[in-house]
Design a protein that fits this description.
The complex is a heterotetramer. By secondary structure, chain A is mostly helical. Chain A has 12 helices and 2 strands, in the order ααααββαααααααα. In chain A, α1 crosses α9. The termini of chain A are far apart. The relative contact order of chain A is 0.21. Chain D contains 13 helices and no strands. Chain D is globular and about 60 Å long. Classes of the chains: A mainly alpha, B alpha/beta, C alpha/beta, D mainly alpha. Chains in contact: A-B, A-C, A-D, B-D, C-D. Chains A and D meet through α4, α9, α11 and α12 of A and α6, α11 and α13 of D. Bound molecules: adenosine-5'-triphosphate (2 copies) and magnesium ion (2 copies). The site of one magnesium ion (MG) has 5 residues of chain C, from loops.
């Protein structure tokens, strides 16, 4: 097996993991604060669509990324408003966001992109080579990535720092575990949850931008293709820890890249068994002992100061 | 926009046709071509049209029977997956004619329309085998079913008619919407050495072609002439004018000449199935060879027949 | 000078009036006790002072200035610190994290420095603590300490302690009261809620609440425990149990050389042997976290290892809300939690609603469970009534062995009386009772013999008639005989 | 208060109306006629014979699966594996329908049973992993969906494929294993009646049986249940298994009543709709039936809106999402209203 092949494989695994990881990290913010987020799929799709639309009209990828961030944040705000202020069932809110996002992005995509003939071909985000490191054999590819990948890495580091080494992060965790205790300590549960869900939405939106601006350079209806759900699986798998979740995403990405390569080698296995490989591997890993992960205690429970259940 | 489906207003006497599409009409490929088919028929023949997109398998029978019940004269089901539903529904509505595109059913009021995908992929196989340096070709599609299998087989037969020991890898992504995955699948194929790629994808096909172009390998367009998507990579395209084919059958139906049979349309109808523009990269001798073979197929000097290979039913070439 | 003054405070939940026109004035630098039955409205009132609830009516004055306490944050800024009855600690976080929660405006969390601050604070007040321990790993007594440190860390001038001693050992209570005294002398004002009259009597003043209304406020020197109990309950209560002698029967429970390890592999019960006979109460005294829970758990989960034949076992768990009851089930449903599969509650796999209801009605009558009807979810009952439901269920069917773990924790005197009398009635019937408690007087009053547990071992089994609080207390603290 | 009584009826109605108003706006932008579209939606899905038949046909699988989801929820288990369990159930009854010959009165129950068992097996796996190994059932049941779908794809493409079929599907199952049509001429089949009967049985189990008591107890407080001598592990496994079995019945009824064969994509996402249905039903069985009916109407009405009024499918998705959203908001607001007027029991 050649060096190129391995470094191609690494790069492919990474590319397949990046949108998942954005979604998972976005979900992490929300869920650590106690707000369940099944709506990652819809947020990804919204980010993808808005970045495509903006870049299509402005020709500027940065504008695209920025609007994806804002749009993701707005969907997050909607989710927060529904779950935190109105205390709508968090699961239903997420499912509804997915449905609405699927419908609206497809609807708008047809209005915007179909009128102009041919495929939209969007500019791409430039690659940045990190000097010296980019020249290392095999792993060098990891340092020849576009800015969104580096941003993702910094988000992982920053999120870890934020959660465990800042006061706000402490507040966030407290709110997710025992909101009433946080409330009595003078923390505004509502504010923290809003911030968390909106920030999370912004991050997921960037994942959508990556999908469009880095991976395929055009928008397609329902192009998130279930990534939001895999991101949730990764989040649980990674035990709601930024690094753990990222590694779980990497596992999904790497097995996906692997199965595509097995197919490419014409190994005589029905393709369906290869397509299901990432899911099977994850399932076996869970069953085989990586197992137990305890969610934030207050996950999914709306907080109401006047109720007996804290 | 061009959402011009008619309402059911009863300007009776008019010929009414409807199409049920498994996917979205904006996919720039299979479903869109079906949609364009009924649009073309409306334009050319003045028929009244209606369509439904995203018909899931659970909805097929409902959609077909509902159109029939509303008095549509012709109901087109766009995809082989409708075959079972057609055989279930058609006997109950003898006043309506059903057409299964890509199907293999026929009956009193059932016809199937099949494009002979294999003929044109055979030609592409010849071109691919002549262009490859690595002796590795690749086929990529969303899912495996009869049409993709036939197309792959044609590609293989064509390639092997040039180079016996050539290798062909195939990848099925399992999801027609997942463009990013299709792109990664292409990259995986390229990284294992494939240097000519034949693809059949909907929304994802531009991603495959552009990736091939970026990586300096060759590819074929499919369904439409896609040479403008990635001029450096696309050698030629397997052009399938489904809209024309559909209009042709609609016209037959309008004239009450449609028969309960399988209409297999191939290279003999260049307005329906043909090779697209050749890229300059494809040398004249190769182009000529492809075109010669095409003529042989049209003249039925080369035909494809059922046979067994390695214990499996498949298709083989028969040269006369 | 009055530090805190409440004027006409009223709080309603729906149509229910939890606080009815309350007027109290609390002097600066004093310890002011609030006494009242379960559900009298004490916690509600304190939640109003600490900003968690808003009163429907009335005005709060702090140092004679009217204040509006809109949230916990405001309360903290006003120097009001509350230690809630149900701890407001986050089990997954460390001691330090809990103490500093919500206090720093900095971005970076310098945990080392904060730990040092916590240590310094704990030394100042003599409240020893491991700042890096996770709260969920700490025994409740220590958790209580964390709560106090949390309030002190916020530099509260007014400390509200809602039943702080319910989970403390006598020694801990003593030291807490000492600490409170010390704090009062330093100028802190303290509101102290307790059901224990001997603690209340050590405060400076006391206000008695009954059904949301202030009954009286008086200096403790001018009253007696007996008087207070009667004011609170509104009737005569007997503060001493009268225990009939009962002939002891066969050995029901026999534990020999029991060892238990916890899930981290540490031995928590070591070489424990004892017997309990029919008609006998064996008290187990000890500081919380010395292996009592593990001992009881092990007996309850594998009773056949300790009994010569299959017997009925009744179990009153330590935490009635988490392990004793299903809070969202109603009274009738909770009462059949153990017997739902049996006749007459079940026939051919179907629940028999009539039988279930009849059972509940009679249990409510027999155990004096106060609720409008059997369909009230138990989450809406006061602690005392919740405990009576557990008792009614566990004592049904004449169990041979009853394990009662802290059965009176958090209950008012009236409720305690009721619980203990039920248990003694079972003893007279011939049940063997294992009674685990941290309340020494209670253990001595109810037990025939008392085992003292220390660091997983039984350091002595004493005859209840011939022992003293001092002796047991000494053994509990690790003293040798 | 009188208004409070009618709140459960009014609030969904207001929610649906709001969703339709937003939808009308979108339909208009798309160049179709909203009034025509909505006329089609309501006339067809609820008031015409065939349209109502279609609605019922869609309701059947939704009702089966959402009952399963609710059953799991009662035990505190969140089964999002309905989709995979439908596929497995469909497989089970297809196998019996294809390879066993028996008279109808044996063949039909046998095929249904097989559907139940296959679905139950697929539900048991996450139940087992949760109960015994503590693995979060949300993630495992989600992963199992993908595995089931690919497995069925393989089977319909290879060993089970009908000869010369242009698309992956199995041969027709035996006539004797097919469910009868209950509304002649329409597609409404016996699976609908079965679904309603099953819902009734589940209602009795949940509300009237000791088993239901046990499951609810575990769902509300596993620790207390454990102390009371209930086996929490068994209960969790049982609940997930039954939930899977019910979803399996959805697959079985789709095969035996509607399609008469196994398809590569037998379920268009019923497993996910069912989750929303279970939550919107407020845990009541009547709610389950009504919400399933409504979703069925929406699904079949969606097709009609496309067919006869040219409303694009994208708008229909948006309307569905908005409807779910607005109903959920309505429920939340209603809950608050009731809470704020709450009368304490003492
Ligand atoms: N949030 C609430 N909603 C409705 N009723 C409440 C609420 N909080 C308390 N109550 C009711 O108010 C009454 C007073 O409760 P409170 O908690 O103040 O009692 P307490 O005096 O602290 O009792 P205990 O000694 O048991 O702690 C109780 O009857 C209780 O049912
Ligand atoms: N929102 C509420 N609605 C109804 N009842 C409530 C509400 N909040 C509290 N209560 C009830 O008020 C009563 C008093 O509350 P509190 O928290 O003081 O419990 P408690 O009686 O002291 O019990 P414990 O023994 O656990 O200390 C409890 O029975 C509690 O369930
Ligand atoms: Mg209280
Ligand atoms: Mg209490």
């Amino acid at each position: 097996m050649s060096v190129d092949f391995i470094s191609d494989y690494l790069a492919s695994s990474l590319r397949l993991s990046v949108p998942l990881a954005y979604a998972a990290l976005g979900g992490l913010f929300s869920e650590r604060s106690g707000v369940l987020n099944i709506g990652l799929e819809g947020m990804l799709l919204t980010g993808a669509f808005t970045s495509a639309a903006t870049t299509f009209y402005t020709g500027n990828v940065w504008a695209g990324i920025f609007t994806a961030l804002i749009a993701g944040g707005l969907v997050g705000f909607l989710h927060a408003f529904l779950c935190v202020s109105l205390r709508v069932n968090q699961l239903v809110s997420g499912l509804a966001i997915n449905l609405v996002a699927t419908g609206l992005t497809s609807f708008l995509a047809r209005l915007l992109f179909n009128s102009s003939s041919g495929t939209q071909r969007l500019p791409t985000v430039p690659q940045i080579r990190i000097p010296v490191l980019a020249n290392i054999p095999i792993v060098g590819v990891l340092f020849r990535q576009d800015i969104l990948v580096y941003i993702l890495f910094s988000i992982i580091v920053l999120t870890t720092y934020f959660l465990f080494y800042t006061n706000l992060g402490l507040n966030l965790r407290a709110v997710g575990e025992y909101p009433k205790a946080a409330d009595t300590a003078g923390i505004s549960v509502t504010l923290v949850r809003y911030i968390a869900v909106v920030t999370g939405g912004c991050i997921v939106g960037c994942g959508g931008a990556y999908l469009v601006l880095v991976q395929v350079n055009y928008f397609v209806e329902e192009m998130s293709a279930g990534r939001g759900f895999i991101a949730i699986a990764s989040l649980i798998f990674g035990k709601w820890h930024p690094v753990g979740s990222f590694l779980a995403c990497l596992l999904f990405g790497a097995t996906e890249a692997l199965q595509l390569r097995i197919q490419a080698f014409s190994v005589n296995i029905p393709y369906q068994f290869l397509t299901m490989l990432p899911y099977t591997v994850a399932l076996l890993a869970l069953a085989g002992g990586i197992g137990k992960s305890t969610p934030p205690t207050a996950l999914g429970l709306p907080y109401n100061r006047n109720s007996i259940k804290g | 926009s061009n959402q011009t489906s008619s309402t059911t207003s009863n300007n009776s006497g008019g010929f009414k046709i409807a199409i049920a599409l498994p996917g979205v009409i904006s996919d720039k490929a299979w479903n869109q071509s079906g949609y364009e088919g009924v649009q073309l028929a409306k334009q050319k023949l003045g028929v009244e049209i209606a369509h439904v997109e995203k018909v899931t398998q659970a909805d097929q029978t409902e959609v077909l029977s509902d159109f029939a019940r509303r008095g549509y004269n012709l109901v087109i089901a766009h995809g082989g997956q409708f075959d079972a539903a057609i055989s279930q529904i058609a006997p109950q509505f003898l006043d309506t004619f059903f057409i299964g595109v890509n199907g293999s059913v026929s009956g009193a009021n059932i016809a199937s329309l099949r494009i002979d995908h294999l003929q044109v992929s055979y030609l592409c196989g010849i071109i691919a085998a002549s262009m490859t340096k690595s002796n590795k070709l690749a086929y990529i599609a969303g899912q495996e079913f009869q049409a993709t299998q036939e197309e792959l087989r044609g590609f293989e037969l064509g390639a092997k008619s040039i180079k016996k020991d050539i290798q062909i890898a195939s990848t099925f992504t399992g999801d027609w919407n997942d463009v990013a995955k299709a792109k990664e699948a292409t990259l995986a194929l390229i990284s294992t050495g494939a240097d000519v790629i034949y693809q059949w994808l909907d929304s994802a096909s531009p991603a495959v072609l552009q990736t091939a172009s970026d990586k300096g390998v060759y590819a074929f367009g499919n369904t439409k002439d896609q040479s403008d998507v990635a001029p450096k990579a696309v050698l030629t395209s397997a052009v399938k004018h489904l809209d024309v084919a559909i209009t042709y059958l609609v016209e037959l139906a309008q004239k009450k000449e449609l028969k309960g049979q399988i209409y297999k349309l191939g290279l003999e109808r260049p307005d329906i199935l043909t090779l697209g523009k050749f890229s300059q990269i494809v040398s004249q001798p190769i182009q000529k060879q492809a075109l010669n073979t095409k003529q042989q197929i049209v003249d039925k000097k080369i035909t494809f027949v059922n046979c067994q290979e390695a214990g499996k039913n498949t298709l083989c070439i028969k040269k006369v | 000078m009055s530090y805190l003054r409440l004027e006409n405070i009223t709080k309603k939940f729906g149509t229910f009036i939890a606080n009815d026109n309350i007027n109290i004035s609390i002097e600066s630098g004093t310890i002011h006790a609030i006494l009242g039955e379960n559900g009298a409205g004490k916690s509600t009132l304190m939640n109003i002072i600490s900003g968690l609830y808003q009163p429907d009516n009335g005005q709060i004055y702090l140092q004679n200035k009217p204040v509006k306490i809109a949230s916990s944050d405001v309360a903290i800024k006003l120097g009001i610190g509350m230690i809630h009855q149900h701890f407001m600690l986050i089990p997954q976080l460390t001691v330090t994290e809990n103490i500093i929660l919500g206090q720093s405006k900095n971005i970076h969390l310098n945990i080392r420095q904060k730990q040092a601050e916590v240590i310094a604070l704990s030394q100042t007040y003599n409240l020893e603590i491991d700042p890096t321990a996770k709260v969920e790993d700490l025994p409740v007594g220590i958790q209580q300490r964390v709560e106090i440190l949390k309030v002190l860390y916020r530099q509260a001038k007014l400390l509200i302690l809602d039943e702080p001693t319910a989970v403390l050992t006598p020694i801990e209570v003593k030291s807490l009261i000492l600490i409170l005294r010390q704090l009062a002398e330093r100028g802190h004002t303290i509101i102290f809620i307790s059901h224990k009259l001997e603690e209340v009597i050590k405060c400076d003043t006391v206000t008695v609440l009954r059904r949301g209304k202030v009954i009286t406020t008086t200096k403790t020197q001018q009253t007696t425990p007996q008087q207070l109990a009667e004011l609170m309950v509104g009737r005569q209560v007997s503060l001493c149990l009268d225990k009939q002698p009962v002939a002891k029967g066969e050995v029901i429970l026999s534990v020999k050389n029991l060892h238990v390890k916890d899930n981290r592999g540490i031995a928590v019960v070591r070489n424990v042997s004892f017997e309990v006979r029919a008609g006998e109460v064996l008290g187990v005294a000890g500081v919380d976290g010395n292996g009592q829970s593990e001992l009881v758990d092990s007996i309850y989960r594998t009773p056949y290892s300790y009994m010569s034949r299959v017997r009925r076992v009744g179990y009153i768990p330590e935490d009635r809300q988490k392990t004793g009851l299903i809070l969202r089930f109603n009274i009738a449903q909770n009462l059949i939690l153990k017997a739902f599969k049996n006749q007459p509650f079940s026939r051919r796999g179907l629940l028999q609603q009539d039988a279930i209801k009849t059972n509940a009605v009679s249990a409510m009558e027999e155990f004096d469970i106060r609720a409008p009807d059997v369909n009230v979810p138990v989450s809406q009952l006061s602690g005392g009534n919740q405990q009576k439901i557990v008792l009614a269920r566990e004592l049904a069917g004449e169990p041979d062995l009853i394990i009662a773990m802290q059965p009176t924790r958090g209950l008012d005197v009236g409720a305690i009386e009721a619980v203990q009398q039920r248990l003694l009635a079972q003893r007279e019937r011939g049940a063997a009772i294992l009674y685990i408690s941290t309340e020494l007087e209670e253990v001595i009053a109810i037990s025939d013999r008392i085992a003292v547990m220390y660091k997983g071992e039984f350091v002595g089994i004493l005859d209840a008639a011939n022992t003293t609080v001092a002796e047991i207390g000494w053994l509990m603290g690790g003293g040798k005989r | 208060m009188i208004t409070k009584r009618f709140l459960p009826i009014f609030s969904p109605l207001i929610a649906i109306t709001s969703a339709l108003i937003v939808g009308a706006f979108l339909i208009f932008i798309a160049g179709a006629n909203p009034i025509a579209a909505y006329t089609a939606l309501f006339q067809e899905s609820l008031s015409t014979y065939f349209g109502f038949g279609n609605t019922l046909t869609k309701m059947a699988p939704l009702l089966f699966v959402s009952t399963g989801v609710l059953f799991g929820l009662k035990a505190g288990q969140f089964n999002i594996g309905g989709e995979g369990q439908i596929y497995f159930g469909a497989l089970g009854s297809t196998l019996v329908g294809l390879y066993i010959q028996a008279p109808s009165f044996i063949h039909v129950p046998l095929a249904l049973l097989a559907g139940f068992i296959f679905g139950a097996f697929w539900g048991w796996i996450p139940g087992y992993l949760k109960a015994i190994r503590g693995v979060n059932e949300v993630i495992t049941s989600l992963l199992l969906n993908y595995i089931a779908i690919n497995l069925i794809s393989y089977l319909t493409q290879n060993p089970l494929k009908e000869l010369n079929a242009p698309s992956p599907y199995s041969p027709l199952i035996a006539k004797s294993a097919q469910l009868p049509i209950i509304l002649p001429g329409s597609l409404a089949h016996g699976g609908i009646l079965l679904a309603i009967i099953v819902v009734g049985i589940i209602w009795i189990i949940v509300n009237r049986s000791t088993l239901g008591y046990r499951i609810t107890a575990v769902g509300l407080n596993p620790k207390a249940s454990d102390y009371a001598g209930i086996s929490v592990q068994c209960t969790i496994m049982l609940a997930m298994t039954v939930a899977g079995g019910l979803a399996g019945l959805a697959g079985a009824s789709e095969v035996m009543g509607l399609k008469y064969r196994l398809f590569e994509q037998i379920s268009p996402g019923y497993g996910f709709d069912a989750i929303a249905i279970a939550f919107l039903s407020r845990g009541s069985v009547l709610g389950l039936v009504l919400v399933s009916l409504f979703f069925g109407a929406l699904r079949s009405g969606a097709n009609v809106m496309q067919r006869s009024a040219g409303a694009p499918v994208t708008v229909i998705y948006a309307i569905q999402g908005l409807t779910v959203l607005f109903i959920a908001i309505g429920l939340a607001l209603e809950h608050r209203l009731i809470q704020s007027n709450n009368v304490d029991h003492r």
